[in-house]
Amino acid sequence: MRKSAIILSLLMVFSTVSLAAAHEFILVPQQWQAYHDGQKLPFSLASSHSFMHSEELEAAESVVASYKGNKVSLFANKPYLTWDGSVTLKGGEAAVLSAHRKGEVWSKTTQGWKKGDASTLSGVILSRKYEKFAKSILPVDGKTANFDRKIGHALEIIPIDNPLTARAGDDIRIKVLFNGKTISPENIFATYKGFSDTENTYAYTTEPYGEGIAKIHLSSSGLWMIRVQHVAEGNGSKYESHVMRATLTFPIEK
Q1: Alpha-carbon distance 46 to 27, whole Å?
Q2: For residue 78, which of 1, 11, 33, 210 sits 20 to 30 Å off, Cα-Cα?
Q3: Which helix (H) or strand (E) holds 7?
Q4: How far apart are CA 51 and CA 115, in angstroms?
Q5: How far apart are alpha carbons 198 and 170 in whole angstroms?
Q6: Exposed, middle or buried by CB within 10 Å (0-12, 13-18, 19+), for 254?
Q7: Would you tell me how many other CB atoms lie within 10 Å of the CB of residue 245?
Q8: Mean pLDDT of the chain
């Protein structure tokens, strides 16, 4: 009985941990019928359980975005709880926008969840570092070259098949990189804007096969999001594990 109680307690702790800082970090571009060279593209960085409506405004010091290797200025859209920016699209290839929610350490303490670790908090039961990465790829003047460009995020989703030439009903393959090497996350989730407002609800889920490759069925047109998670080893006394999440968004036509 005592052993069962201990196991149950641990399960409750870790299930609670999985919910902490569990919002997805999503780069949501303004949707147009077409994207052109020289066009100004507004976008938002959303943090949400319900896709793709933001539920939390991330800390200003934790959020950065870039395009073509250049940092993009962001401003807080407090009514919508997003960080918003815009870029001027450049032609000749696919546009690849990226964003990073820098790592934050959160701890389960005897007084509940708090930001920080044992060096700054008392009554710490366990600590985890949460870090999030987001990308969006778009065709520009119908050009989709370099749709599979690597940004260099610690955790990154790379399309193998071109999603920008896919249509509703098609399948595409992806792979996931951790520090530049292919890994096989336990689960890969995908959904599209408007599928459901219910939290943590996805249109599609799968597992990698072969050498870390996964196949996603694109059942509808619209703005799609693929999401993965990877848990790496922690940093000794500061945090027990490093939880990383990555999302990729792209438009699918009918």
Answers
A1: 6
A2: 33
A3: helix 2-19
A4: 25
A5: 25
A6: exposed
A7: 22
A8: 89
Of 204 and 52, more confident:
204
Query: Burial of 204 by CB count in 10 Å (0-12 exposed, 13-18 middle, 19+ buried)?
Result: middle
Nearest-angstrom CA–CA distance, 204 and 243: 22
- Tell me the per-residue pLDDT of 97-114, one tens digit each, with 9 for 90 and over: 999 999 999 889 999 888
pTM higher than 0.85 for the full model?
yes
The set of residues, in sequence order, having a beta carbon less than 8 Å from that of 230 and lying 6+ positions away, is 155, 176, 178, 183, 185, 243, 244, 245
Q: Are 167 and 237 in contact (CB under 8 A)?
A: no
Least trusted range by pLDDT, from 114-118, 136-140, 159-163: 114-118
Most confident of 20-34, 169-183, 201-215: 169-183
Query: Token match 């200003």: residue?
Result: 60
Cα dihedral 55, 67, 244, 155 sign: positive
Look-up of token digits 């530049």: 180
Distance of alpha carbon 93 from alpha carbon 67, whole angstroms: 13
For residue 2, give the H/E element and its range. Answer: helix 2-19
Give the start-end residues of each E strand in the chain. 24-29, 40-48, 63-67, 70-71, 75-77, 82-88, 95-109, 112-115, 124-138, 155-159, 171-178, 181-183, 188-192, 204-206, 213-217, 222-233, 241-252
pLDDT at 4 over 50: no
Two tokens, residue 62? 């934790």
Q: Which two tokens stand for residue 67?
A: 């395009």
